[in-house]
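Hi R.,

As promised on Friday, here is the backbone we talked about, encoded as structure tokens. Could you run it through your design pipeline when you get a chance and send me back a sequence?
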């Protein structure tokens, strides 16, 4: 019983970390296409043909220079329905991360400040 009381929460955090990692993976895959599209056309939309959903991320949206991954419901409750964002700084061409939705340090992706 004691072993289960320790192992189950640790396993839940492990699953949550794995699920939360999909957001940075999908957003990170957009970095080069976004930067290239901006350099060529000056637009900040998600390039056509980009992957904008996964097993745990229901969709990725773009608003100006902020790209937001929305986690699906029905997954780990520490991640479900939360968001994380990647911002493109047009002046420098660099990306920064914001993870206001994922507050639990046990599941928060390492890219989050």
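Update: got your reply. Pasting your designed sequence below so it's all in one thread:
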């Amino acid at each position: 019983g004691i072993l289960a009381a320790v192992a189950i929460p640790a396993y839940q955090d492990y699953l949550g970390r794995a699920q939360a990692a999909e957001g940075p993976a999908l957003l990170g895959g957009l970095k080069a296409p976004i930067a290239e599209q901006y350099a060529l056309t000056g637009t900040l939309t998600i390039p056509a043909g980009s992957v904008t959903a996964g097993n745990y991320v229901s969709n990725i949206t773009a608003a100006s220079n902020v790209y937001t991954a929305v986690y699906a419901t029905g997954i780990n409750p520490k991640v479900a329905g939360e968001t994380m964002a990647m911002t493109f700084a047009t002046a420098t061409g660099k990306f920064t991360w914001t993870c206001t939705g994922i507050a639990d340090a046990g599941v928060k992706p390492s890219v989050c400040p």
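One thing I noticed while checking it: The chain is about 35% helix and 20% strand.

Thanks again,
M.
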